[in-house]
TrEMBL record:
UniProt cross-references to PROSITE patterns, sorted A to Z: GIY_YIG (PS50164), UVR (PS50151), UVRC (PS50165)
Family of this protein: Belongs to the UvrC family.
Protein name: UvrABC system protein C
Domain of life: Bacteria
Amino acid sequence: MSTSAAEKTLLKDPERLTARLKEIPQEPGVYFMKDETDHILYIGKSKSLRNRVRSYFRDGAHHHTPRIGTMVQKVAEIEFIVTDTEAEALALEANLIKQHQPHFNVLLKDDKKYPYLCITWGEDYPRIFITRKRRKDAKSRYYGPYVDTGLLRRTLQIAQRIFPLRQRRQPLFKDRPCLNYSIGQCPGVCQELITPEEYHKIVQRVAMVFQGRSQELIDVLTAQMHQAAEAMNFEKAAMIRDQLKGLDTLSANQKVALPDGSISRDAIALSADDEHSCVQLFQIRAGRLVGRLGFVADTQSGTPGEILQRVLEEHYRMVDPVEIPSEVLVQHALPEADMLAEFLTVQKTRKVAIEVPQRQMKAELVEMVERNAQHELARTQRFTDRNNQAMQDLAELADLPGPPKRIEGYDISHVQGSDAVASQVVFMDGLPAKQHYRTYKIKNPTVTSGHSDDFASMAEVIRRRFRRYAEDPDLKRLGNPDWPDLVMIDGGKGQLSAVVTELEEMNLLSELNVVSLAKRLEEVFTPGAKQSLDTEPDQPGILLLRRLRDEAHRFAVGFHRKKRTERMRRSRLEDIPGLGHHRRKQLLGEFRSIDYIREASPKQLATVDGIGPMLAQQIYDYFHPSAAAESTESEKVAAPAKTSA
């Protein structure tokens, strides 16, 4: 279904909104909310499409959460797909969300609170790593989020000892495997000594561990070990035996054993205050707790049952059918439990039951999950209280009208003026908001290699950041999410003075709150003050500023190193005659680094598209001038002999 981009949002065109709502049928199905650029904002499902969509736009929509309220303001078009049943609508919604990954479909308040395990199935040789950020990659698979980070790391370490897996993202050597291959820790991925198909089979066994299917894996490996022994392949049998011992070690780490080991079940519960709902999901397989997942949701997003329903939908949408248990125990009744149960049954191809337990054993399990959720909520509350205390202290320190919601930090990075860059990092409510981070390349012509000017560089960055506000005096400041409540400059009075001068020229100094934080003594300076503020090194506001400063420094240094590496790679190859931009890119894409290009022979270089034998020899001679000189000298000696003949 396609549509042209709308000229304006539906809220600004009541007649078009009314007409569009009348077109939506009162049948089950899936609806799409789109913005003015035809980009999908949100995908939802309902047993009555018209009633559900109408609820977003009815009068008194103040009941919406800030997330949904922001989304509704951007809706310019509504589309829908009708289904026969509610379960079909849920299945279709799951597939469409996987495909499009709309921004406003994220229920979790902070997806970086708990880590995931990622397997990059889209690669020929998949990588396995722990991350706190789910990337928009449909082919990668994320397991989690796991509450116990230490257990997750230990499990991954044991799995890496049990199974031969790739140990490096990039190969250490161009033409031979590293030590990991020799000791059996890697199957030689860098030299493709194992086929992608065979390597995928190894990774699938690792995935079974994180799917809670360890016992199933043990049964498979045991059968394979006996087959290898019967075939007199004792080396393979011994390798599988060692893997089974490792899996026994892994099972020993899962100390929580529960009665009724024949049933696989998930148990979910939450604990909430006015702001946060901490959700815990325990995965029980064969009577053993194999996973403890955690989610943090906005309490205002719905009733406890609605929150649990959405968490379960989001969780099971991302798992393989073999990971779905036969039974799901919930703390509160779900508003659409029958629809979810039917969806899970279809996915698993076996009956899945969802129930609020009443019997003692199952009820005690849910109570245990709830107690863990209460502990997570208490930890979240302590963190929130410390964060609020830090923002309040900073507001008093910098004489702000209230706690700073948006704080921006700036830093400069270079090596004696070369590759000068700057960073802008943003903290929202005291936490890093990486979606708002920015980097700047310093354009000042006086800042060159051997001549640095941090004052001028910082002034340039501030001018580029806020010049649109100077050019448009009517541009809204208060209430604008892009306008900072506080700006922190990494440096002392010199950097602050340069920034103040720049802001005065733009007539913005009176509207912008600025401080600087000097590195040596952690002193805080404000515009016009000769002395630093009277502060304590460990007071909450100063600690928050230091976290902001350290993050700005980390981000600036990382960007500087990236630009410096690109320049060094580019400059070495730019000196080679006949090697243009496209061919340089081809070379680096094939050999990955200058070192590998230097080590390659002319024959190896000539295998790259666009690199002929003559150019390959020129590249080789550039990196081996002594060999080229010897070749030239031998040609001179051989020339007279050829003439006399």
